[in-house]
Amino acid sequence: MGASLDGKRAILTGAASGMGLQTAKRFVEEGARVALFDINEDVVDLAKEVGGTGYVVDVTDGAAVTAAVDTAVGALGGLDCVFNNAGVGWMSLLHETDDETWARVRGVCLDGAFHVLRATIPHVLAAGGGAIVNTGSISGQRPAAGEGPYAAAKAGVHALTATAALEYAPTIRVNAVAPGSIATGMTSPLIAIPKAEEFWTRKVPLGYIGQPTEVADVVVFLCSDAARYITGQTITVDGGMTLHGSGVDGLHDLVMGFARGEPTGL
Fold first, then answer.
1. For residue 189, cis peptide bond before it (omega within 30 degrees of 0)
2. Which of 8, 15, 90, 262 could be joined to 80 by an S-S link, Cβ 3.0–4.6 Å?
3. Is residue 35 within 8 Å of residue 12, measured between CB atoms?
4. Could you read off the pLDDT of 68-99 as tens digits, one per residue?
5. Measured between alpha carbons, how far is 151 from 195 in angstroms, rounded to an integer?
6. Residue 158 CA: distances (Å) to CA of 151, 163, 189, 252, 253
7. Strand partners of residue 11
């Protein structure tokens, strides 16, 4: 796509699968040196395959994030780019959401994003500037029933993105991507439900469920000099899904019906 990251040093979280792993591959293809963070221990071997270094990190642990970032930046020799991507999903009605679930979704998606920002920003400032991309979601823009914890956390990520863009301009550009229906490990259980793939696909004007590469290419662009005049934005990557309204409106009913053994007609 022409966007170059030659010589850039990058940290990517949630990088053992899906959008994080694919973005790490794209970063390396574009000339960046990468450190991959994930709670999944496979990240160490996967990072080697990509050509980077892997670190097992729980982003809900602020002290652990800071320590890992400091170690990774020391190995990289500095930090220019961050893809703040770690996240988890969940579907339940608000009155059926227990404290543990609320805390887990918020802890990974929102607290984790904050921990990574807090730990990486000083290093990007020390390097003289760079770019940070957070992973938000269309659910944080147009929530659907059953997405309360996840939607609230992702809306918080969008707010953190705008705040950081204001606080650290002009030295650091901070943007977010808001993916729609992307085929990842997090969405695969939902896509596997009978009729769910059809349900999602017919909501997408471009006619297909996105792949992690769809998001990775946008992240590469946002971290490159080609996006030098873009900051504080949430870029929607959903094939046009939210032109119809909430991207996953009605999915909760489909999932609950499947769980009860009911026909999954559309």
1. no
2. 8
3. yes
4. 999 999 999 999 999 999 999 888 899 999 99
5. 23
6. 11, 9, 26, 23, 27
7. 35, 82
Neighbours of 191 (CB within 10 A): 15
Tell me the CB-side half-sphere exposure of residue 12, using CA atoms within 13 A: 34
Contact 35, 51 (CB under 8 A): no
Q: Does residue 244 carry a pLDDT above 60?
A: yes
Q: How far apart, in whole angstroms, are the C-alpha atoms of residue 29 and residue 221?
A: 13
CB 132 within 8 A of CB 164: yes
User: Hey, what long-range contacts does 67-74 have (CB within 8 A, 24 or more apart)?
Assistant: 68/37, 68/119, 69/11, 69/116, 69/119, 69/120, 69/123, 70/119, 72/11, 72/35, 72/37, 73/9, 73/11, 73/123
Please give the Cα distance from 74 to 53 (Å, whole number): 12
The strand pairing partners of 38, in sequence order, are 56
Q: Where are the alpha helices (DSSP H) in the chain?
A: 18-29, 43-50, 62-76, 99-106, 112-126, 148-168, 188-191, 196-201, 212-223, 251-259
Residue among 166, 152, 145, 177 nearest 22 (CA): 177
Instruction: For residues 85 and 165, give the distance between their C-alpha atoms in angstroms, rounded to a whole number.
Output: 17
Q: Which residues contact 41 (CB under 8 A, 6 or more apart)?
A: 56
Which residue out of 150, 168, 208, 229 is catalytically annotated?
A: 150
* pLDDT tens by residue, 182-200: 988 776 676 777 677 888 7
The Cβ of residue 89 has, within 10 Å, a number of other Cβ atoms equal to 19
Tokens of 259: 């769980």
